[in-house]
Amino acid sequence: MTYGNYSLAFPVRNYENKIVCSLSIVGPLSRVNNQKLKEYMYILHDASMDASERLDFEK
């Protein structure tokens, strides 16, 4: 465990709704604030949904 870092992760699902991998980012807390974390969360969520849709995942 490393203190002073943040980590965000979202699953990538396939056409069977199975998680096949995840996308994540990690960085030092000293470089972000709550607004930046929210922005990163939205970016990562959109990227994981895009990857899932390419694997024929349907919401």
List key phrases describing it:
single chain, 59 residues, alpha+beta, two-stranded antiparallel sheet, 1 helix, 2 strands, 36% helix
Can you give me a brief rundown of this structure?
The chain is of the alpha+beta class and 59 residues long.
What does this structure look like?
The chain is of the alpha+beta class. 36% of the residues lie in helices and 32% in strands. It contains 1 helix and 2 strands; from the N terminus they run E-E-H. It has a two-stranded antiparallel ribbon. It is elongated and about 40 Å long. The model has no long low-confidence stretch (mean pLDDT 94).
Layout: helices, strands, pairs:
Blueprint: E1 5-13, E2 19-28, H1 34-54
Antiparallel strand pairs: 1-2
Strand order of the largest sheet: 1-2
Count of strand segments: 2
Describe the global form. Answer: elongated
Tell me the strand percentage band: 25-35%
The major sheet is characterized as: 2 strands, antiparallel
Calculate the terminal CA-CA distance, rounded to whole Å.
Answer: 34 Å
Uncertain runs? none
Proportion of residues in helical segments: 25-40%
Structural class: alpha+beta
- What pattern of helices and strands is seen along the backbone? EEH
Number of helices: 1
Question: How big is the Rg?
Answer: 13 Å
Mean pLDDT: 94
